[in-house]
Sequence to fold (480 residues):
Amino acid sequence: MPSDWTYAPAPEARDIVTLEERYGLFVGGRWVEPRSGETYTTISPATEEPIAEIAQAGKDDVDLAVGAARDAHENGWSAISPSERAKYLFRIARILQERSREFAVLESLNGGKPIRESRDVDLPLAAAHFFYYAGWADKLEYAFPNRRPQPVGVAGQIIPWNFPLLMLAWKIAPALAAGNTVVLKPAETTPLTALLFCDVVRQAELPPGVVNIVTGDGRTGAELVKHPGVDKIAFTGSTEVGKAIQRELAGTEKRLTLELGGKAANVIFDDAALDQAVEGIINGIYFNQGHVCCAGSRLLVQESIYEPLIGKLKRRLATLRVGDPLDKNTDVGAINSKAQLDRIKELVAAGEEEGAEIYQPPCRLPEKGYWFAPTVFTNVAQSYRIAQEEIFGPVLSTLTFRTPEEAVEKANNTAYGLSAGVWTEKGSRILWMAQRLRAGVVWANTYNRFDPASPFGGYRESGFGREGGLHGLEPYLEFE
Ligand code: ADP
Fold:
């Protein structure tokens, strides 16, 4: 019998992607040079190789983009018939499907996530979002009967680096369906799929200025937030920046939705199907290297099954393949940036120092690039930083409970409230838990499951406003 079950490399070909050496800003349907004159280099986090030069948009660039969005809104987009709007969205959805391999490869190259995930999750969901909202574009009167829905105007949208294209779809699809125009800023480390999306916008012959993409770091985001010509800000990112944006917008007319961090409890009862629960735990925290705001980062296990469950979990952990994001066999890819890797290391060191017990399966990490082995902490107290703070990496903190009441109390012992998971055979217990868990989404016997028809969003420090579903249209509409 072979004792070594290593996989042969199965790399996805990169040549489907054509890269420019240097990218401008996409404003009014054209590529323009940044007036700021500033650029930076975007890299592959798996190898640290430079990939392209990206514009760092300044105040004047943001102003130009907002102006283009305003023009497009007032000179056509808000007035065209809703069924025409729907056609554009359907077209974008279909083009994304047609070009999905190209987008998936670029997403993995620029962001470090496994190709298996960008191919099977990010791309299908991004296209599904456009299909879904295309369906609503000409049915707003039915969606909100007797309320005379009108577009808000120009939406400023700021997105993070963990699901670059998918977050773009979450933002742009409902905004356009509702008749708005947008200026979107991708995260500084992952601009490339948003820039490739500009090509899709052109291919779909969307009127110029309906979608504008400005690249740059937080300074560009701050300019967009401040700009007086923006009617609505939609932000997904850290709680810290979300709070700063809320302070900035206090007292203004601008509308705001925030989708921020999380520290979700994934609760395993002793009657749960353990092997399925282990898969759910793995999917909950190691999917996308744990760079997931709704990640199941706090595992709560009923005491009677703690030992067997942790044993199974450790064995499963040892089978995860960490490495080249473009290899089709990879389960855990690269950490998105050096800054994020440093943050993960800092919190993991704090966990060890505070007294938690660390387990990492033996795995060889590549020498170049940013990597972190899948990690489980046991013996964690609720007060530890690793049980309270969002790590945003492949690190699981494990706690125990005895009764359902204790599970609820511990699950809710967090400043966040984005998501939670419950694993049990009992339907009544699922409902009992779902009523008590203070989280925007509660998954039962599954985790990290998404559908464009299902609203997503948080409570407390996880933000406010919902994306997805009918709820996701409301922030982009005004009612008479
Ligand atoms: P993370 O810590 O996960 O990188 P951030 O909240 O810093 O999350 O980043 C999310 C998005 O917000 C990125 O596009 C980033 O450039 C942008 N951003 C960062 N700082 C600001 C700011 N002060 N105002 C507006 N946008 C910002």
